[in-house]
From TrEMBL:
InterPro entries: Beta-barrel_OMP_2 (IPR025665). Pfam families: OMP_b-brl_2 (PF13568). Residues 20-189 form the Outer membrane protein beta-barrel domain. The lineage of its organism: Bacteria, Pseudomonadati, Bacteroidota, Flavobacteriia, Flavobacteriales. This is Outer membrane protein beta-barrel domain-containing protein. Keywords: Signal. Residues 1-20 form the signal peptide.
Length: 212
């Protein structure tokens, strides 16, 4: 992990050695929304399928220099994974999915570097606060939900990860973004039946936003 962080830092420095700058010297605020593709990674989760959900929230961009900005964000993030998929031979000829839904309020603190005007890369720590947890046997409808009470949960309320991303901001303020977040800590509580289970959040995000 240390080698990955050092490599990322060297790459950012090298890429931004060429001329590049932010489109504004003032603090900007914005909103964004997009799609999540998430699962758990680790030795015990090699065969799980991903869950598709959404993210939505707000952000700010605080210029540090011509090339660098600090970008804090707060957003809702639907995460989790597909526990299993069951092929059912019935009159509807449909599949039944069982999703494990883990939803967070995520707070990334990102260093943003402009490569050329409008195009930037970003990296930084992300802190997640769990707000919802449930099993859903019918993820495509309002039925099948089984909410897990906080007192009965084996998943920690707090999670940490490392975010890597890129975005392109148009002159009018509209921007497109893509990001990957790598879980750094095991999500499962210690002193439970899952304490030796290796599971970390693994999320791809694609979205659109607007800076005001």
């Amino acid at each position: 992990m240390k080698k990955l962080i050092v490599f990322t830092g060297v790459l950012l420095f090298t890429l931004t050695s060429v001329y590049a700058q932010s489109d504004s010297k003032a603090v900007q605020f914005g909103a964004k929304a997009g799609v999540n593709i998430s699962k758990l990674s680790g030795d015990d989760f090699n065969d799980v399928d991903s869950r598709t959900s959404f993210n939505a929230g707000v952000l700010a961009e605080i210029p540090i220099s011509e090339r660098f900005s600090f970008q804090p964000e707060v957003f809702y993030s639907g995460q989790g994974f597909d526990v299993l998929e069951i092929d059912q031979d019935n009159i509807f000829d449909t599949d039944q999915n069982l999703e494990y839904q883990l939803d967070y309020i995520q707070v990334p603190l990102l260093l943003k570097a402009y490569l050329v005007k409008g195009l930037s890369v970003e990296v930084g720590p992300q802190f997640g606060f769990k707000v919802h947890e449930e099993f859903d046997s019918e993820p495509n409808s309002d039925a099948g939900d089984f909410e897990i009470d906080t007192d009965d949960s084996y998943v920690k309320d707090f999670d940490t990860s490392l975010a890597f991303g890129t975005s392109y901001k148009f002159d009018g303020g509209l921007f497109l973004s893509a990001r990957y977040t790598l879980g750094l800590t095991n999500i499962f509580e210690d002193d439970t039946v899952f304490e030796n289970v290796d599971g970390k959040n693994d999320v791809w995000q694609f979205g659109v936003g607007y800076m005001f």
